[in-house]
Amino acid sequence: MNRTKINKLLKAKSPKNKVLLKGWVRTRRDSKDFSFMEINDGSCLKNIQVIADSELANYEAVKKVTTGSAVAVTGSLIESPGRGQKWEIKAHKVEIISIAPDSFPLQKKRHTDEFLRTIAHLRPRTNKYGAGFRIRSELSFAVHRFFKEKGFKYIHSPIITGSDCEGAGELFRVTTLDNGHPKAQDGRHDYAEDFFGAETYLTVSGQLAAEMFALALGDVYTFGPTFRAEKSNTRRHVAEFWMVEPEMAFCDISGNMDLGEEMIKYLVASVLDECPEDIELFARFVDKKLMRVLDNIVKSDFVRMTYTEAIEILQKARRKFEFPVEFGTDLQTEHERFLTEHYLKKPVILINYPKTIKPFYMRLNDDDRTVAAMDILTPGIGEIIGGSQREERLDVLQARMQATGLDPEKHWWYLDSRRYGTAPHSGFGLGFERLLMLVTGISNIRDVIPFPRTPDSIEF
Fold it and tell me: Which of 21, 35, 410, 428 has a CB 3.0–4.6 Å from the CB of 52, allowing a cystine?
């Protein structure tokens, strides 16, 4: 007999003669000649009640089942006389798979997020985190569905790389040599004896690989883990995170902005359609404004303005910011949230950033001062997408590399894409965890990824 999911049982239109349910006990209470168990198998937020009566052969053992124990119940799906539930299961047989000791830390009470991070291996069993990770699963499928419907090809970009795509230098080095490996005459480490024969790192982006394939297959995307060795213990940063990175051939900055806006609306709408009960939990207990924010995103036309216009708005704002605002500086979260939550009250796409604060690969505008970059900012989060039209002109790209201190010879293969059949192309990166923070109202990035990797923390 196939195992029956609680979600299917709860949506059943008629009773079933016999069901088999395997799951974990959330609570158990006894009445005269009966024991009532709330069982959850992880398929949905709701539990289903199981009635075990004294006629069961192992009834005395059932009465000792504790919270967190695993059981397999064979029984009948019947109409429930109690409030708040349409169906319940009358047990014919209860197999006790395992008994959780009284030390099981997730007893029936509310636990703080800080505490639950210390038991990240158990927190998916709570209502909040079970709902959050079901949403994460649905969003992952929705990403692939979105690009499949638009004709994009899915590619797997390398996790190990020799390139610092963003130029920030915050890279995890990958090596098979010990700390005492040989040094060259100039005192630097000699990587000739290393596995790859060169200095290598964990990737911070799949963009450069995606560009190569966009200039061959048309529209492509990557979706995978990226890594940044940034010593930052904030609610917005982890060392390992996931990025969605589409790249489109024959596409300018305008088409890039269109895709970013369409994608965010599609993904938010998908979660609202596919995970209504899980989203409702976050709207009730995490962020009372969540439904209003998500509805606004789906229904609004995103505002588009230049970086320069945004700077002028912020400078005129009657608000004291922690970080000063002036042309040539990157916007901070407080600036981004002011624009989206107070000034515009909707998502905004900023374009044309100063070239001095953006990477070498972004297309230089005619003013020789700004690049065709775009960031999408949303209420509650700030920047959720960063992208650009890429520099397709070989001579300009070489000059930008040299100006930013990159060795063109080391990126010969990247330059080859501009030598042979160059074409305008654009792309962006969407921070998947930030998207999850947006749709759940969760304020700490550590709580939307199963096992967060942060400075001085890699226990799980």
Answer: 35
CA trace torsion 361, 363, 368, 373 (10° rounding):
-90
The CATH number covering residue 54 comes to 2.40.50.140
Instruction: Based on the fold, state whether residues 42 and 159 are members of the same structural domain.
Output: no
> Does one domain contain both 325 and 281?
yes
What's the gap between Cα 104 and its chain centre?
Answer: 29
d(CA 74, CA 86): 19
When divided into structural domains, the chain yields a total of 2
Flag whether 243 is in a domain.
Answer: yes
Residue 47 shares a structural domain with residue 131:
no
Do 344 and 255 sit in the same domain of this protein? yes
Global confidence as pTM: 0.93
Domain that holds residue 256: 123-168+204-447
The CATH number that applies at residue 388 is 3.30.930.10
Q: What is the pLDDT of residues 122-146, one digit of tens each?
A: 999 999 999 999 999 999 999 999 9
Tens-place pLDDT, residues 69-100: 999 999 999 999 877 789 999 999 999 999 99
CA distance 377 to 211: 24
Is residue 457 one of the residues assigned to a domain? no
Nearest residue to 161 (alpha-carbon basis) of 172, 145, 148, 152:
172
